[in-house]
Amino acid sequence: MMGGPGLNTEIFAAGRTAEAAQRAKKLENLYHVGQHKLWDGRQVLDELQRRHGRAPAELPRIQREALAAVVGGLMWGELAAWQISAQLADRLGHYEGKLAATSQVHDEARHFYVLHDYLRLFELPQPPLEKRTRALIDVVLSTDDLIHKLIGMQLFIESVALTLFKALRDRAVCPILTELLVLFERDEARHVGFGVQLAPDLVRELGPVARLKLDTFQLRILGNAMLSLRANAPHLVALGLDPSAMARHGLQRMFQTVALLAEANGRELPAIGGPAVVRGFEAAIEGLFPEESSWRGRALGVARALRSA
Fold it and tell me: 79 near 112, Cβ under 8 Å?
């Protein structure tokens, strides 16, 4: 399933199981659905500005700065997703996977320029990418392992993005952004579907050592995602969002994804979704986003999480 250098003329896989053939058909269909549901980012943004005016520019200064920081981080994340999906389109060795990845390249490019234009149109500053968020992105962007890149992008980074999209949309921070994110989420759901359909066949081929490396890689992503959320917590709070609730929602989404992937590959209990890891991340949430301000209160919260999660 992995493409090599040069032109691969063996992209039409033969001898698939019925299950694999069904998943391949769904992958191919993701491309055609994406074509059918294309939207023009410039046209949509123009229409939203006509209906809502300059809503982002009219927010209080602290909220404008927070919005710029959060949307700026999302913008750079979309650039990374654009680059990663292009890598997948190049390296995947079969027709259906290439089609699905190519559709995602188009989507991520549109998401990037729409967020860039949103910041510029409403004169919001474009801050540099926060270092913890950069570290999260670089974990996936820099790996040469195709399976790590696919799962890291489609099932983990996309889950982080969807968690943030939902929180911003539910809070209705800005009416223009709220309506844009509905379209973003529709696209991102197809991207998660891409990973869910393609990953099982790739992971099933891994031996014990490679699976351990994959679990370790996933833990790195989860850890960096938590630190990125903590670094952005002041901006999120300024927008009326709850970083602790977002962390729990995001982790739940990721653990559900891991469980589905494990089930598809005949693993009864995925290592990173087991009780010990869940307790560890619950404790990390208590430590990073404490309800108690005192060190004693924080320590007790961590201890409770380690005992009961």
Answer: yes
8 Å CB contact between 112 and 85: no
Q: Is 144 helix (H, G, I), strand (E, B) or coil?
A: coil
pLDDT at 218: 85
Q: Domains of the chain by range and CATH?
A: 18-220 (1.10.620.20)
User: What pLDDT, on a 0 to 100 scale, did the predictor assign at position 6?
Assistant: 72
DSSP per position, 87-130: HHHHHB-SHHHHHHHHHHHHHHHHHHHHHHHHHHHTT---PPPP
Tell the burial category of 106 from Cβ atoms under 10 Å away from its Cβ (0-12, 13-18, 19+): middle
- Listed in sequence order, the residues at least 6 apart from 62 whose beta carbon sits closer than 8 Å to its beta carbon are 238
Q: DSSP alpha helices (H): ranges in 12-94?
A: 18-36, 41-52, 61-91
Q: Which two tokens stand for residue 193?
A: 């579907």
Whole-angstrom CA distances from 201 to 185, 188, 224 are 26, 21, 27
Please state whether the predicted TM-score (pTM) of the whole model is above 0.70: yes
Find where tokens 């301000």 sit: 293
Structure tokens given for 94: 């079969």
